[in-house]
Write a structure and sequence with these properties.
The complex is a heterodimer of chains A (270) and B (210). By secondary structure, chain A is of the alpha/beta class. Chain A has six helices and eleven strands. In chain A, strand 8 and strand 9 form a beta hairpin. Chain B is built from six helices and six strands; from the N terminus they run αβββαβαββααα. Classes of the chains: A alpha/beta (270), B alpha+beta (210). At the A-B interface, strand 11 of A face helix 2, strand 4 and helix 4 of B. Strand 11 of chain A pairs antiparallel with strand 4 of chain B, so a sheet runs across the interface.
């Protein structure tokens, strides 16, 4: 980022400085992520932990666990891996799309239901502070008391170039953070191609990724077939990682545009 | 105040059983529509952070009611904490996990669908459908259908919890309130002749005390 850029207004002579010269006439998938591997992009899996060394996941950049403290929450190094398998499944999908990205596990699930709201908030705050490029959130909360803080965090992430990719609900309930416009919200489609995704012209769900009959990583090194928005989300997170590895300068706004322009129902997946 | 309490009590005591029946009807219906081997509803007990079987249809229905397990365990636990519906197939390929799942199902299924029960801003529990007919691959339409059952089940579970809370309040209020509540409930269910006689008696007691 050019530090001398005007932050709040733009004098006439600055127009040249902020010119985005290499934007193509037509955004294609080849321009967006052709030849990309995810290298250099840091993806955070905010979930139940990740089983390091799983054949579908490989090595992790790091892992922390978030737990309730007396007054707030504490973040500590995580040696337990994955407590239930959900995070490992998500990490495996990201890895399958972006084989060279770096994956970091932030465990906010698995220690029971109680206190899961503050732990989720604490984990997300920590992830945003670390400056990850992409945060996969295959989870949500329905508690309104956390909505405002989550919203602030989502906006902070958006302006700090951390893309939050969050699972939408397929039921008529209010839940967060997927409903915020500063995140990329994801529902499921039934096509078996992992790179097929659609833009939804009827938000709040913005994109549909592969979420049906997905071969997912399972605890203990195995795999299993599963369906749900939980698994559609890491597909979009993985494609985002590919795009950002080829175009690291993109802001979340621009990334969302590239996703829009390359969606199967917009650019026809060209 | 007593009138009010008695009226509430009549509702609370009588309705708990009805809501349980409603939950049972929902799992029976879900099982039939999906052509599944079993279907169950779990209530999340906030006090103990456990999932409790509230209604079971089909396989395992005999002895699972009231059985509890930690809320972080198994597929039901995943669904509860992530608030995300989930479908898993070919479960039997992983014996270790299958054992854990069996804890929440009573037997080892080949596959299952699980959906969170969300009402207002509360996550009340989980609805599971085990071993649906596998004529075709799982489809999103089934997930939508499961979501409809989940809405119904969430409302019933919410009502059940309210009825239980009302009963707990009455019990705390002491024997007097409980007796009045029971009386109101019996009065509501009594034969017309008996009810008329009882009402005359109650009016007499009312006059006596006033």
């Amino acid at each position: 980022m050019d530090e001398s850029l005007p932050a709040w207004s733009m004098p006439a002579e600055a127009a040249k400085k902020i010119s985005i010269g290499d934007w193509p006439e037509q955004v294609t998938r080849d321009w967006a992520w052709g030849g990309a591997t995810g290298k250099g992009v840091r993806v955070c899996i905010l979930d139940s932990g990740v089983e390091a060394g799983h054949p579908l996941v490989g090595e992790l950049e790091g892992a922390v666990a978030v737990a309730r403290d007396e007054e707030d929450v504490a973040v500590a190094e995580d040696a337990e891996g994955d407590l239930c398998g959900h995070g490992t499944a998500c990490a495996g999908i990201v890895r399958s799309l972006a084989p060279e990205c770096s994956i970091y596990s932030v465990r906010v699930l698995g220690a029971g239901f109680k206190g899961s709201g503050p732990v989720l908030l604490g984990g997300l705050r920590w992830a945003v502070e670390q400056g990850f490029d992409v945060v996969n959130m295959s989870l949500s909360t329905t508690k309104r008391q956390f909505a405002e803080l989550l919203h602030e965090l989502a906006d902070t992430a958006y302006f700090r170039r951390t893309v939050l990719v969050a699972s939408a609900h397929n039921m008529p309930v209010e839940s967060y953070p997927w409903r915020f416009s500063s995140v990329i919200s994801v529902g499921s489609h039934e096509d078996p191609d992992p790179q097929t995704f659609f833009y939804n012209p009827n938000p709040p769900v913005e994109f549909f990724g592969r979420g049906v009959g997905v071969e997912i990583a399972w605890l203990g090194g195995g795999t299993i077939r599963s369906s749900g928005n939980s698994f559609a989300t890491p597909h979009i997170a993985g494609i985002s990682a590919l795009i950002l590895s080829k175009h690291p300068e993109l802001t979340p706004f621009q990334l969302k545009n590239v996703l829009y322009l390359t969606a199967n129902n917009v650019g026809g997946g060209r | 105040m007593t009138d009010l309490r008695a009226a509430v009590a009549a509702g609370a005591l009588g309705s708990e059983e009805s809501y349980r029946e409603l939950l049972q009807a929902i799992v029976e219906c879900a099982r039939a529509i999906f052509g599944a081997k079993a279907s169950s509803i779990f209530l999340h007990d906030e006090e103990t952070d456990e999932l409790v079987f509230e209604a079971v249809a089909g396989e395992g229905s005999g002895d699972l009611l009231g059985v509890r397990f930690p809320s972080s365990r198994g597929v039901a636990g995943w669904v509860l904490v992530t608030r995300q519906p989930l479908v898993i197939e070919e479960l039997e390929q992983d014996p270790r996990f299958a054992r854990e799942v069996a804890e929440s199902t009573g037997y080892v299924p080949k596959g299952l669908m699980a959906v969170p029960l969300l009402h207002d801003e509360n996550t009340l529990g989980v609805l599971e459908v085990l071993d649906r007919t596998q004529q075709a691959a799982f489809s999103l339409a089934e997930m939508e259908l499961l979501g409809l059952f989940a809405n119904e089940a969430a409302i019933a579970l919410d009502l059940l919890q309210r009825a239980r809370e009302a009963r707990a309040v009455l019990q705390e209020e002491g024997a007097e309130a409980s007796a009045l509540a029971r009386l109101s409930e019996r009065l509501a269910k009594a034969e017309p002749e008996k009810r008329e006689a009882a009402e005359r008696l109650i009016n007499a007691i009312d006059e006596l005390l006033s």
